[in-house]
Structure formats: structure tokens, C-alpha cells
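Note to self: the last two entries modelled the partners one at a time, which told us nothing about the interface. This time every component goes in together.
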Amino acid sequence: MNHTTIGQAQVDRPTARLSLAYVWVAYAAFGLAALAGMLQGMVRGGLVELPSWTNYYQILTAHGVLMALIFTTYFIIGFLLSGVAKTTGGSLHGTARGLGWTGWVLMTVGTAMAVVTIVTNDASVLYTFYAPLKASPYFYIGAALLVVGSWFGGFAIFSSYRKWRRENRGKLSPLFVYMSVTTFVLWLIATVPVAVEVLFQLIPWSLGWTPSINVMLSRTLFWFFGHPLVYFWLMPAYIAWYVCVPRVIGGHVFSDSLARLAFISLLLFSMPVGFHHQLMEPGISAGWKMIHVILTLIVVVPSLMTAFSMFATFETTGRKKGGVGLFGWFKKLPWSDVRFFAPFVGMLFFIPAGAGGIINASNQMNAVVHNTIFVTGHFHITVGAAVALTFFGVSYWLIPVLTGRTLTRTANRMGMVQTVFWSVGMFLMSFAMHYLGLQGTPRRTDYTTYMDHPLALGWMDYQRVMAFGGGLLFVAAVLLILILGYLTFYAPKGKTEYPIAETEAEQHTPRILERWPVWVGVLLFLIVMAYGIPIADQLTHNPPGSPPIRTW
Amino acid sequence: METRTDTQRQMDKAKKPQPESQNLKGTFIAVLLVGAIILLSWFGVFGLFLGRA
Ligand code: HEM
Ligand SMILES: [Cu+2]
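The predicted structure of the combined assembly is written out below.
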């Protein structure tokens, strides 16, 4: 039979090239960052000393920026563009592709600027670029280009969504598209405050046009963005969990409405909550902090909804395959398929990660863990394990889909090994980080024994566990890049499925879930309620600003 | 008449044993475990806080 390729194509060539361009920049950044991460662990464990032409804070900045800002953003845009294309007929139309490439170019120019300033040691300000640490203006301009470029990825998704809706009047959008749109509505709104911080505070100040900076305000604007940033990492992983993983295991989406409701809740409660990162800061009153903490804890609801949904999909699928008894279904899951195994391990990591998040957000306990390496342990199991393992699992099928190749049995087996190395490494490193943090070990600190203080000497064994975990992680990172390189250039040609699950039977999803003006309206209302007065206070009662400081 | 048959049908349906695939007992236990982990860790660190306060 000579079917036209259009009917069969998972994602057409031009879209595949765009998506692949994003995914590969993501992994290039990831590789460099993994090297930096391993070195950090070794340095802190006292196993190596850095050469004199670099220093701990320079590589720490490189690691944080390349992992948390570059790897994640590129991968997310590449993945979502491909999935939107797949679920709206197999391709992006010309406008959307144009927007996608424009974004890629802007982001890549911005990334290059930021990386060069970090390499020349003019931007060791860590990935949070807190004032009054001052980087080269080019670092901030690069960051601004990165953000603006990422908006174009969002515009590409919105444009495909609009086109789909015009052609399918009255129909409910595909779940993948709906979730991608929600993710980018979040991203477009969340990046506004950080763009304001960079454009109106950091750039003029680093160019010397303004002598001082309102530090409090800059940190508030940063965290207005910083918390939704973590949901921006998480939501694409959830898309894989809700939409792709069920198909990989031969099951269905458990509930379409529940999935959409979870995403709307994540959107609404991602933004009016930034003060949970500023609980130890003076200049914000306890009452406002409490309001942000309460709104933060609401995220427990969509998180447990997601946990329920995942288990329910696994249980129904496992039972259909003949699993009986309370947990018999568990054994029926495809344990030797890396496309399932990697994201599943990610989900497991997310259980303690969520518990840790609730601890961090509770005011009193934040005093125990604030600025300790507990926090670093926390986000290595959220973004570094749950999200990263999911992205790896996605890459194992996404890259073959995009290159028209197949995930061979050997590549699958290597992927399993890679997943085990990453998971064991992350478990050891993060466990040590959590444990040390509870003892008070600070984060973001070069090797030191604090003048041989007995307390700090007692930390050294665990710092070496961290270093060992980092070594395993680095091996896993190298292995991953080798496998993905194989899947891009050498794996045998063939058809690979883009896994998109559907609900088992027709379900009735309340239409209100797709009424964007309602949700954006509620979100803006929440933002004004949560931030209006505190930001007005910080503007009118601003303390004397700070001149730029260079500590390195 | 209508109502009676409807009720009848509903009762028939209720009597039929649920298919095995609709059984979500395992899911229920699993989410309870997740909840328990959250509570245990929260109170663990809260204990540390009280010990140090
Ligand atoms: C090869 C795997 C990895 C290793 C060995 C590693 C190791 C480390 C270490 C040792 C630190 C520094 C602790 C400190 O002194 O405060 C760190 C910080 C950090 N890591 Fe990783 N990590 C890895 C993967 C990741 C991933 C996948 C992400 C996110 C996608 C990530 C994001 C970060 C961030 C944001 C920081 C904080 C930087 C800062 O405090 O400014 N890491 N990592
Ligand atoms: Cu947060």
C-alpha cells in the first residue's frame, strides 16, 4: 500500500528540524553543565582543587545558568513544539515555524552572550543574578534576549492553537495542546517581572547610568518570576506523565477534566506565592508572607491529583493486562522499557521532593533549611531528577521520531543503564545534601573546613558522598549524550511512534476549563492582591540603594 | 413507566460486579502512602525546629 506520508508522519520534516535544533542546544548546555556539576562536588568533597584560572563561583554560575535556565528552556520549547505539531495534524504552519526559528536565534544569541561573559569571569553572579552582585551588562542583555526569544516559542504555540481552533470550531482542543498553551500562558506572564528587573534595574545600573539599585525590589521581582519558573520546568514533565507515558504503557488518559483542572490550578497558584523564597528577608511584613505561604500550599491539591491520576492509569492498565490483587497490577508495567522506566523513577523522586517543598515553604522550617544545601538537595530531586529523568525518557523516543530512526533494543538497554546511574547518583548526592543541610551546611560555598571546626569536619564524609554521587551523575550524562548522538545520526531508519494517549471513552470536560479570559482574569486578580501593596511599599519606602559590588 | 425501567436498569448495573479494571484500591493505598510520607517528613523537620528553637 502506498499511503501518503502525510497520513503517517508523526511530525513533518521542517517542524522536526526546528524541534531538533532546540533539543540539541539543550543537550549541549546540559553536557557542559554536568561537567561543572561534577567538579563542584569534587571541590566541596576536598578531592580536587581548581586551577588558578577559574574559581568555584564561576563554575557554579555556569552550572546553574546552563542547567536551570538553558537546558530546561530549550528542551521544553523543542518538546512542546513537536507535540503541538503532532496533535494538530503533524506539522506547524509557516507562521508558527517562523516564530519558532526567530525565538531560537534570539535565544541562542542571548545564550552565547551570557556564556561568554561567564567564561571571561565577568558574570560570577550565580544563576539568580542577585543584586548587588554586578555582572557585565552583556550578561543581563543576554539573559533578556533569552527570555524574549523564549516568548516567540510561546507565540508559535499560540498561533498553532488559534489555527486549530478556527478549523475545529466548538471542539475541545487536544490535551497536549491545551497543556502546552497553559504552560506558555504561565511563562509569558511570569517572565514580565524579571524582564522589568533586568531592563529597568540591572542593565542601567550595570552600565553605570544609575548609581544604585533597590535590592529588595529586585529580589521581589526575581521571585515573582522564580517560583513560576519551577512550574515551567515541571508542567512539560507533567505533560509527558499525563499524555505520553500512558500511551507508552498501552493505557489511557485517566481523566481529561482532572488533567486540565490540575494545569489550571498550577497556573493560578504559581504566581501569587513568591515570598516563600523571601521568608527570611526583612522588608516584607509577616502578614504578606503568610498570605503567600497559604497560597503556596494550595499546590498540594493539583500535586496529589496528579499522583492519583498516575497511579490510577497504572492500576487500570496493569489490571487489564491481568494484574490481580491489591498491587498485582504493578508487576504488569513495562519495566524494561526506558520510555516508561525513566519517567517512572522521576515520579518516585517527586514524592520526597514534594514533601521537601512543603517543608521549605513552612515559615518556621524555612528558618532551619534556608540557604543550607538542603535547598540544593531539594531542587536536584525536583528538577534534577523528576523533571530531568522525564526529559531523558522523552528524548529516547522524541529524537528517533524527529530523525526518522528507531530506538533499538541495545539503545533501550543502554538507556536503562543510564537511568540507573543517574538515579543512584542523584539519590546519593541529594540524600547527602538534605542530611548536611539539616546540620546547617551552607550552600554555594567553596571547599572550607571553617578553620578545622569540629562541626564542619564532621560534614566531610557526607561531602564525599556528594562527590561520589556527582561522579555517577557525570557518567550518566556522558552516556546519555552518546546514546542521543547515536539516535540522531546512526540508529537504523524506521518508524517510531510519538506516544499520545487518549481517554478510554468519550468524557465530558467542562468547557469553562478552556475559557482563557476567565483564568487569566482570576490570575491577574490574585497577582494584584498578593503583590500590589507589598510592591507599592517597596517603591515608596525604599531604603538607600546599593552601588554595584564585585566579589570576585 | 419510564422511571421504573430506568431505576430497574440502574439496579441491574449496581448488582453487576465492577470489572477488575475499574478497581482502584491500589491507587487509593498508594496516595495514602504519599500523604503519610509528606506528614512524616514535615513533622520530622518540625521536631528539629522545636529542638533548636
Ligand atoms: C551531573 C549532574 C549534576 C551534578 C553533579 C550537580 C551538582 C551540583 C552541585 C555540587 C551544586 C552546588 C552546591 C553548592 O555549592 O551550593 C549544584 C548546584 C546547582 N545545580 Fe546541579 N548538579 C547536577 C545536575 C543538575 C541539573 C540537571 C540541574 C537542573 C536542571 C541542576 C541545577 C543546579 C542549580 C540551579 C544549582 C544552584 C546554583 C547556585 O546555587 O547558584 N543541577 N549542582
Ligand atoms: Cu518556589
